[in-house]
């Protein structure tokens, strides 16, 4: 399930919109904190070919199916 759009909400919490139109807000801290520090979160972008979320000019990326499964099982509560 490719990622179509994202928005960094707060720290490691991202709002993600997938190819099926589903929007999920999730905390990516456990998934990426060891590889992406808080100041590097601003480097987030979508790889247009693969539909994955990547950081640090592609040095760190999250495969789209992995990201979708993570988001579905780690939905952030409304704030």
UniProtKB/TrEMBL annotation:
<protein>
    <recommendedName>
        <fullName>DUF2442 domain-containing protein</fullName>
    </recommendedName>
</protein>
<dbReference type="InterPro" id="IPR036782">
    <property type="entry name" value="NE0471-like_N"/>
</dbReference>
<dbReference type="Pfam" id="PF10387">
    <property type="entry name" value="DUF2442"/>
</dbReference>
<dbReference type="InterPro" id="IPR018841">
    <property type="entry name" value="DUF2442"/>
</dbReference>
């Amino acid at each position: 399930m490719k990622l179509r759009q994202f928005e960094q909400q707060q720290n490691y919490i991202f709002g993600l919109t997938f190819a099926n139109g589903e929007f999920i807000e999730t905390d990516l801290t456990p998934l990426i904190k060891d590889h992406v520090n808080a100041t590097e979160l601003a480097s987030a972008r979508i790889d247009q070919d693969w539909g994955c979320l990547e950081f640090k000019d592609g040095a760190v990326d999250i495969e789209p199916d992995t990201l979708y499964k993570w988001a579905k099982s780690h939905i952030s509560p409304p704030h």
